[in-house]
Design brief:
This protein is of the alpha/beta class and 309 residues long. The protein has one domain (10-304): Rossmann fold (3-Layer(aba) Sandwich), CATH 3.40.50.1820. The protein has helices at residues 74-80, 106-123, 137-147, 170-173, 180-184, 194-198, 207-213, 216-224, 246-255, 280-296; strands spanning 10-16, 19-26, 50-54, 84-88, 130-135, 154-160, 231-238, 262-271, 303-304. A nine-stranded mixed sheet has the order 1-2-4-3-5-6-7-8-9, with helices on both faces. Helix 3 links the parallel strand 5 (130-135) and strand 6. The longest helix is centred in the middle third of the chain and has 18 residues, at 106-123. It is globular. The chain starts with 9 loop residues before the first strand and ends in a 5-residue tail after the last strand.
Length: 309
């Protein structure tokens, strides 16, 4: 079943150096911001910047355009605030699933994604640059890209549902599905029909991702030390995949030593799949606020930790 889309969200394809990637696109509302109007008063069409949204393992780009409630869609919210939002089906998902039945390693995914984003920038206005907003396994890809941007104009990263130390047995991590509670938390965190409507967003997790997932604690330190853009990480109040105790967070921040700004936040009343729950709008607004600070070049030089759950 093809997932429904929010108004003005459209499907496009991108050329990832010979790999066709599917994506959802919602361009910035043309009436915003007023400061971009020309002398005749015509609304400008240049977005503030472009948010590139990367879904997690076993999901798809529609994760960022949730249909269970009008408040869920990142694409709609971002466009209304002047951002172009591009949600990409990662390599091995969507249009590339048949060509890449086993998926790609993170390094290969990063190369494919960088090529696809260059293709996007050649055809669409991107504003001040690209801001990667990623969930779960998509966060691993965002960190991999940021460690070697290869000329991409990256403004910063906002990542939810991804840490560096697993909180569960590694053998469970590599099992398909991984357990309902770890992915969702508790029922009350989601709008009615959220699970039924999310069925169309679920996709098989490619074998290469499953195998590489177990190695993430070994891979992360080398990547983290090379990231030179601001990073914000959010852990849901009901996050069970990752360690997010004070010691784990301190170690996580310390490893992002080259980043000028690192923030770690908590999202109350949310499960791992934050963007499909009632907390989606609050999380997306916080992420876009961080993106705005990155766009504006605000350098607080802060390395902060959450004070409470």
């Amino acid at each position: 079943m093809t997932p429904a889309l929010s108004p003005r969200v459209r499907r496009i394809t991108l050329d990832g150096a010979g790999v066709t990637l599917s994506a959802l696109l919602r361009e910035a509302d043309p009436a915003y911001p007023a400061a971009d109007r020309d002398a005749a008063g015509t609304p400008g069409t240049e977005p503030r910047a472009t948010v590139v949204a990367l879904h997690g393992g076993g999901m798809s780009a529609g994760y960022f355009d949730g249909q269970a409630h009008a408040d869920l869609s990142l694409l709609t919210l971002g466009a209304r605030l002047g951002w172009t939002v591009l949600a990409v089906d990662r390599p091995g998902y969507g249009a590339s699933a048949a060509a890449l039945p086993d998926g790609q390693t993170l390094a290969a995914q990063a190369a494919t994604l960088r090529a696809a984003l260059r293709d996007f920038a050649s055809r669409f206005r991107t504003g001040a640059g690209l801001f990667l907003l990623a969930h779960s396994y998509g966060g691993k890809l965002a960190l991999t890209c940021a460690a070697d941007p290869d000329g991409l104009a990256l403004l910063g990263l906002d990542i939810s549902g991804c840490g560096h130390l697993y909180a569960t047995d590694i053998n469970d991590v590599t099992e398909r599905g991984g357990g309902w509670r770890r992915n969702w938390g508790v029922l009350r965190l989601y709008p009615p029909n959220a699970f039924r409507l999310s069925e169309s967003l679920v996709a098989p997790m490619p074998e290469r991702e499953l195998r590489e997932a177990a190695r993430w604690p070994e891979i992360f330190p080398g990547l983290a030390a090379r990231i030179r853009v601001p990073v914000r990480l959010t852990f849901a109040g009901h996050e069970y995949w990752w360690r997010h105790d004070s010691d784990a967070i301190a170690d996580l921040i310390a490893r992002l030593s080259a980043s000028p700004r690192v923030e770690v936040d908590r999202q109350p009343d949310a499960g791992h799949n934050i963007s499909l729950g009632w907390a989606a709008r609050a999380y997306h607004l916080r992420a876009l606020a961080f993106a705005e600070e990155c766009r504006a070049g605000i350098d607080i030089n802060v390395r902060s930790v959450p004070t409470s759950c």
